[in-house]
Amino acid sequence: MDEIIEINYIETDENPEHKKTIETVLNACFKEENMDKLGLYVSITLTCPSYIRKLNNEYRNIDKETDVLSFPMFEKDEIDEMIKNQSNTVHDVLGDIVISIDRVKEQAVEYGHSFERELSYMVVHGFYHLMGYDHMNDEEKSVMRAKEENILNKLKITR
What's the whole-model pTM score? Predict the structure, then answer.
């Protein structure tokens, strides 16, 4: 597979602008993390609040809507090993990211920035969860946020 992205739409309309934004952000993420030649791709599902709530309840036992969910296929040390051994292309899915388009719209208004900025943030945030990063404590959050902001700044997608 040469593409780094697969986009699915569940209970939301296809939108070429969304696809363009997602591709731009994921390309930057893969390049920044030296993963652009590994043969990995990300499956992204754009959906509605009720579907993401169902997934959140099913997989996390949290019966409420959320903005983004990430389902990694590898452990962080496995990804680090793939990056280290660049010659070993894997041709596999890095993981799945599910994004609620309605929440992206709401949060863009709430935070006072563009839809593109909020969607880009959801994609980069989901990507770094797939890479094994988290934000459960201040130290982890600091590392993850710095990586996210680095990508968005390089793309000039600012608040």
Answer: 0.94
Question: Which phi and psi (to 5°) does residue 107 adopt?
Answer: -70, -30
In whole angstroms, what is the distance from residue 44 CA to residue 20 CA?
13
CA 158/CA 38 separation, integer angstroms: 29
CA distance 53 to 64: 5
Q: State the pLDDT confidence band at 2, using cuts at 50, 70 and 90.
A: low
127 has pLDDT over 70 = yes
| Amino acid 85: pLDDT | 86
The domain that holds 26 is classified in CATH as: 3.40.390.30
- Euclidean distance between CA atoms 134 and 8, whole angstroms: 25
Alpha helices of the chain — where are they, by DSSP H? 16-32, 49-60, 76-84, 101-111, 115-130, 138-154
Residue-number span of the structural domain to which 131 is assigned: 5-154
- 119-136 average pLDDT score: 95
